[in-house]
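Sequence in, structure out. Go.
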Amino acid sequence: MGQVVKTAVEALAAENSNFVEISKLKGDAKVRSYFRRVLFKPPWEDATWVMYFQSRPTMWEFDEKSMGVKVKSDLSTQIEEAARLKRRKAAFPEALYTAVLRSGTPVETSAVMANAKDSEIAALPMDAIEALMGSLGNLPEAADPPTLQKHAEASVKVITAVPGSLEKKAPSLSARVGL
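Output:
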């Protein structure tokens, strides 16, 4: 099946050299024929296609916004590997770590994290990320909008730092889960 889908995506991408929408892929004659002959049913629903492509990140680049897919190029793989290596070798953010340790309240922690660089947060040890997630898990008692906004920004930054922290701490684990 993989070869049939790959051939269809490459043929459809040749027309516009971009992501191929799932709807166009489902309409491809060879894909429809494969599903009828081998699986005895029509092509999958969009959600199943999304799961198929997202579960194979080494083969496919999937864009959720456009619901499109393209074959992953060697250049894309090299760029991802270079970014992964850069994150893995990032220096320990001692100033950020110290500021987090000195923050006495969740409001102060939110302010520190909201103002921190994403790359520094991702370079924190995984246990620090875990502690920050616990600390930021509850809304601060102060209900003024600026404080709540800082808290939300800090929470998003910490959650998005998880893959980078996993790569830094346990590269073999992050490779297994496809981060």
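Check: The longest strand covers residues 60-63. Residues 88-176 form one domain.
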